[in-house]
Every structure is written in C-alpha cells, then in structure tokens.
Write a structure and sequence with these properties.
- The protein is an alpha/beta fold and 401 residues long.
- The protein has 10 helices and 20 strands.
- The strands form 4 sheets. It has a 7-stranded mixed β-sheet, sandwiched between helices. A 6-stranded mixed β-sheet has the order 2-6-5-4-1-3, with no helix packed on it.
- α9 links the parallel β17 and β18.
- α5 packs parallel to α6.
Length: 401
C-alpha cells in the first residue's frame, strides 16, 4: 500500500484537536488525483507530519487516520499487528464465558478505522464503514484467518441499504465474498452465555446478529424472573429467549418483520422451548400499533428500536420518535414493573435518552426509579478520543406507580 500524496491540513476542528481519527473534508486541501482508498500523509500548514490515513473522496469524512507515527506504514504488517492486539484483548474479555460469538474488531476503537469484524464460532465476518476501508478488507481477511486458530472461514459482507459513513446503523442484506474457506450458506448456531442462537450471516442485520446487546441479554435474564415480558422490536428474539430462560412467566415478541418472528420461533426451539407454548406469544406488526391496541400490562417492557437518525438533520425527528415510543411503552408497564429503554442512535447521547425517558414518564403520569445504565458489551470498546463509538445506551427503570 503506497502513500500517494501529501494532504494539507488547513484548519483544525475541535475533534481533531483531541486526536480524533476523523478529518473532515472542510479541514483539508486534497490534491487532484487522490482517489478513495489511497493512503495519504496529512501535514500541517507548517509542514509538520500529522498522520497517515486513507482518503475518501466520496465522504464528508475525508480521511481516517491509521497512525500518527511517521515511520509506520499502512500495510499488511500493521494490519496483522492490530488484529493480534484485538485478539489478545478479546481472549481476556471472554475468558471463562460459554460464548463463541463476539466482536473482534470495533473500528476506530481498535485502531482499525472503518473496519469491523465479528466472529461467530468458526466464521468471521468483515464489514467496512465507508468505501476507503473496503480496500483493506482482503488483507484483514488474510490476517484474521491466520491469527485466530479456530476460524476456518472469513467472509466480507457488503453493507446493505441504509448504511452511512461513521454510523453503526442496523443494515441488512449484503452480498458475501469469501476470503478464507467456504461460507456457511445457511443459518448456523452460536453460543452466548450458554444460550443458543441462530445466525444468518447473509440475510441478518449488521454482520449477522446484534452482538453489542450480549450483556444486556444477560441482565434481562436476571430481571425477568417471575415477570410477564413484552419485547418490542424483538428481531430474532434474543431478549425474549433470555427472559424465558430467566424464569419469566410469559413473553410476547413484537417485530414488524415476519421472517424475524419466524427466526425467533426457531431460537426458542434451540433453547428447549416450544414456541407454541401458551406462555409465548408473537406479533408481526408495528410496535406503536401493537401498544395502541394491547390492553395488557407487563412486569417488564423492553424497548430496543433500530437507529432512528443517520444524520444531524434527522435528530429532531428521532428524539420525538423516542419520546412517543417511551410514552407508549410506559403505558404497558405494570406498577412495580421494569422499563428497559434503549437507543443505538449514535447522535442520541446517554443523557439525551435518560431525559427522554424521564420526560415521557412525567407526560403519562408514571413515577420512575432509574436503577441502571448500560451500553455495549465490553468487546465493543470505547476510546476517549472517539466518543462516537459509544453509541448504545440502555436505561433500566423501575416504574413504581
């Protein structure tokens, strides 16, 4: 990978002053001929070396910096070092867990800007955020295949519709390109804290599943004992299965997608539950519509919608949508029950979500005690110079009346 050009940094945004890995197009002067995926060196107005990264001529994020060490090239050796470092961290995080599905590379937070890799048993799935990072995926595939001893297949999954640069949004679909071994070709089973779930790499959201909610599923298992549970935006039923395994008195799973509901039924079977059991119910419909016509109150309501804003211009509508959803969800929680309210919208902060939940409770006349705030599982690390990586928030609140 050869460095093509020097790029002049014309001004510093606030994020760049704190060693942020993104340089926006408004802050640099990029010479003609620089193409997406080219390795470029960024220099200050005085000629000082700032860093080396990948250019993206199609994005407002013009350059993602991979190194601030002038002697460090962006090549297969660097990629292998970053993969080894990430693998060492995951071995420590996952030690002693009955889990074989985890995030190996979390983009900027693992110093692999724009590159995500999730491992599902013996399969690894790579995905890029932005066209520039796509140029490195074959090299990452080779590194993952050689460094992780249990991985016998590495595939690259193209991002489906709805993906945006810099946003860990929920995308589905996307073609697969095999880099190492043979792709699975059909859904297969993974383990998560002893639970068993089907993963469909090709048709599933993200790389195949929502691994960031792994620890929250564990908490649902603890909180659900003896409670009736409503799981909204249930997707393939991860929270629902966890609730039943935790001793819930019953679970209702709601998702707009019938294929997702069908997959949820299969996940119940995998965990030794009959999905036709009268304690287990499903509804393939819109979550708000379900809450409008449902009269039952539940001991736990889980509200985990998809990302609702992919740009700052969409943020006001997203905040209003979260408010409506939380007001409706609070109407379905029984006194003494628990609301678990989540946001995976990067532009909605933890403080934003907590304020929405509290304001919604005032609006509908409910009293809350916030008992816990959680985020993504620890294999989704966050670095302080890249707060955008801290995109997932879960508010756990007891509804006392």
């Amino acid at each position: 990978m050869t460095t093509r050009n020097a790029v002049l940094l014309t001004r510093l945004h606030a994020v760049e002053r704190r060693n942020h890995p993104w340089i926006y197009s408004s802050a640099v002067a990029i010479p003609e001929g620089v193409r997406t995926g080219d390795v470029v060196e960024v220099e200050s107005a005085s000629g000082a070396f700032v860093g080396r990264g990948l250019a993206d001529a199609e994005s407002a994020i013009a350059i993602r910096l991979w190194t601030r060490d002038k002697a460090e090239a962006i090549d297969e050796s660097l990629i292998a070092r970053r993969v080894k470092m990430a693998w060492k961290l995951r071995q420590a995080i996952l030690r002693g867990q009955d889990t074989d599905a985890y995030r190996l590379l979390h983009g900027e937070a693992d110093f692999t800007p724009g590159v995500v890799c999730d491992v599902y048993g013996s399969y690894a799935v790579l995905q890029a955020d932005g066209r520039a990072a796509e140029t490195l995926l074959p090299a990452f595939g080779r590194a993952v295949g050689s460094i992780l001893p249990h991985v016998r297949c590495v595939v690259i999954k193209a991002r489906g519709k709805g993906g945006r640069d810099g946003d860990d949004s929920s995308v589905s679909g996307g073609t697969l390109l095999t880099v190492v071994g043979d792709s699975p070709g059909a859904p297969f089973t993974v383990r998560e804290h002893g639970m068993r779930f089907l993963v469909d790499i090709e048709r599933g959201h993200k790389t195949g599943a929502y691994l960031d909610q792994r620890e929250s599923r564990c908490l649902v298992r603890e909180f659900a004992t003896g409670r009736s549970v409503l799981n909204l935006f249930a997707y393939t039923g991860g929270f629902s299965v966890a609730a039943m395994l935790g001793g819930a008195s019953g679970v209702t799973s709601v998702d707009l997608s019938q294929p997702a509901i069908d997959a949820a039924r299969a996940n119940f079977r995998l965990n030794a539950f009959d999905p036709n059991d009268q304690r287990i119910a499903f509804a393939a419909c819109d979550a708000l519509e379900f809450m409008r016509r449902d009269t039952q109150r539940y001991g736990m309501v889980i509200l985990d919608p998809p990302s609702l804003a992919h740009s700052m211009s969409q943020l006001p509508k997203a905040l209003a949508a979260y408010r409506r959803l939380n007001e409706a969800a609070l109407g379905r929680v029984a006194p003494g029950g628990v609301l678990v309210s989540g946001s995976c919208t990067r532009r909605v902060t933890a403080a934003d979500l907590e304020r929405i939940v509290v304001d919604a409770s005032h609006s509908v006349g409910r009293t809350l005690q916030v008992v816990r705030r959680t985020g993504a599982a620890p294999d989704h690390p966050v670095i302080k110079s890249f707060p955008e990586g801290d995109y997932l928030t879960m508010i756990w609140a007891e509804v006392s009346r």
